[in-house]
Amino acid sequence: SFLSEPLNKARNDAAPTEQLAPLHMSQRVRQLVKGLRNVLTVLLPNTQRLFPTSKVSENCDGLVAALYRFVERQDSTLQPPSRLEAINRAVPQIDMVDDVDVCLTMRAALKRKLQSISGGSTGDLSREMSVVHFGGSSSHDIERLVELWFDADGDCSGALSESEVKALFKRLNIYMSTSALRESIKMVDASGNGQLEFLEFMDLYERLTTVRDLLPLFEAIADPRGMQPIDLKGPEVQSKESAKSAAAMIERPKLASDAAVRKFFREVQGEDDPSVARLMKRLGPTKSRGGVTGYSFRQLQLVLCSHTANCVRSPNDLAARQDMAQPMTHYWIDSSHNTYLAGNQLHGESSCDMYTLALEEGCRCVEIDCWDGPDGEPIVYHGHTMTSKIKFADVIRAIGDAAFRRSPYPIILSLEVHTSVPQQDAMARVMRAVFGDQLATAADAEAAQLGSFNFTPEGLKHKVLVKAKRGGAGGHDEHSVAKSLSDITWMAAMKIGSGGFASAMTYPPYGVSSIDESKVERWTDEQLVEASELTKRFFIREYPKGTRVDSSNYDPMQGWIGGAQLVALNYQTNDEHLRLNRFRFLSNGRTGYVLKPECMRKPGMRPVFSDQITVRVTVLCGMQLPKPHNSQTGEVIDPYVQIFVHGARTDNDSNTKFQSAVVDDNGFNPRWNESVSFTVNAASLTMLCIRVMEKDA
């Protein structure tokens, strides 16, 4: 086997003794393999430096995962086995390295991954979160390093010249004078040849990405007297001493003990025991230095600055922990408008894939505009426009496939029905065939009471709820609704007539009224108490006004404040208002259901929020900010930060807005160290918004 036989010394681009998978050696793939070999020839012989643990096999597994993700991005046409084969061919020949075992271990790791693919776990391979501890760096640090190296070493020479480093710095938004650039290279150029090999580049990258503003925090944690008061705002943060301290931290690193780091996570970050255990695992193995065992500054920085390990949202908030046995009307429900559209409202493309994407994002209410189609088959499109048409049956099958992947709680199909009675019958047949027993019926809705279990998300788990107009007792009414469709309509569309909210209070709880954004805004301005009371027992669906032909989104906050459960947005437009919606529904495990505040659920309780808090934010610094629109060209950016509160009107004023100073010519590691405080009156409604802006954009 290839684990025991020596490799052919004459091999260059040829396959190893045992080939993992076929690989067409195009020019692009040859360059990829050559570049990977340059990297691995340096990485693998340096296991003692790069692997601070004896578990080399685990580190090789993680390295394979990182390189696999990198190869996937470089050439997405390669099939999963071929991606592994590209890495396999890049592993150096055994006689080229001193440590034969690590080469064999690397090949064994590749073979394990190939077996995992054969076992059907291909989908998880590119998302592996295995941690490779290269001198305290994570596998994603190494993945980033390899990506940057390939970007800079265009000629695959295995070394970066001054001009290549300068070009890379510009792409990374680093402005540096020629003299400063040469000084940076000289600082890490152990060979003294004026070029950087991969290990020297790793050293430079670590120096550049050291977040100096976190040094006072680490010093406080690592203090042998116990964790001292932490002052991130102290003058030393901006002083020259800070730069010296950062350099010293790299050259003669201090370590923080296991107990001290655990205390920081528990007492300062407020983490519970499971979260502390998770974060400690992400730190990786402890290091030993001068008789002291602990964690390095680099290890702590990588965890604190990770959006996955140290998410801005509390893990408790992100978990599905809310009471799901309250009436359906007591929840905000993630909702989509004209879900089928991938573009604008006039001539955009209609696609079944949009339903899959929305449902996998966590959406629980999707809209289907139904029209008569040829051969008795209903179609879906934005009527009387030039949007493309898709089959209703295909939409329903797509929904059936993805309905409960993200969330087990009920999905609502908001049908806008423009079809004839025969084609409504066809729609009902399709839905019964696809959903089967998961399809709730009109009889189910009428049997449920506002306080009964079968009118709760928990009681309706894995159920499909159709929202549409119902017919009369004879099967049809003035709207010509087919009895077959009416019988499976769980949520019945009802208009709020001239009697207003008072008359609507007598409507059954399974009723729903659809209202455009303009009317919702008027109601929340003029009749907030009445609207809030109605939505404790009746559904309101808000949708965009007709002039939003560009598929832009309105502010969902007004609907939420009024108690509307179904605030429907254009999912295809990733604007700020959709991001607010996405952030709202990150809560409760992205189930698509978020419990409204008590004053919006308890009968007779006015919508007055008494959860006032003070929010204090310190903007320390940025890390590797991209150019606008992720451009790879153009000048180095001049970033600044805006912070503001978005919530109830009492919180949306000039006292809850902040803008930092502009940092010129630095998108790589800009530093601000500015603080702001806000008083927030309705914390349960409010979101803290952070924008990073470019001065000249």
Account of the protein in words:
This protein is α/β, with parallel strands linked by helices and 697 residues long. Helix content is 37%, strand content 14%. The chain has an 11-stranded mixed β-sheet with strand order 7-6-5-8-9-10-11-12-13-4-14. It is globular, with a radius of gyration of 30 Å. The protein starts with 26 loop residues before the first helix and ends with a strand. The N terminus is likely disordered.
Quickly list its features:
single chain, 697 residues, alpha/beta, three-stranded antiparallel sheet, 26 helices, 19 strands
* Number of helical stretches of at least 4 residues: 26
Average pLDDT score: 84
Amino-to-carboxy terminus distance:
58 Å
Summarize the amount of helix as a percent range: 25-40%
- The helix/strand class is alpha/beta
Low-pLDDT residue spans: 1-15, 121-139, 233-241
At a glance:
The protein has 697 residues and is of the alpha/beta class.
Write the layout of secondary structure elements.
Blueprint lengths: L26 H17 L3 H4 L5 H19 L5 H11 L9 H19 L3 H4 L13 H14 L9 H10 L6 H11 L9 H11 L6 H8 L17 H12 L3 E2 L1 H11 L4 H11 L3 E3 L2 E5 H8 L10 H4 L12 E6 L16 H9 L3 E7 L7 E2 L9 E2 H11 L8 E7 L3 H15 L6 H6 L16 E5 L14 H4 L2 E5 L6 H5 L6 E6 H10 L1 H7 L4 E5 L13 H5 L4 E4 L6 H9 L8 E3 L17 E9 L17 E8 L10 E3 L11 E10 L6 E8 L3
Parallel strand pairs: 4-13, 5-8, 8-9, 9-10, 10-11, 11-12, 12-13
Antiparallel strand pairs: 1-3, 2-3, 4-14, 5-6, 6-7, 15-18, 16-17, 16-19
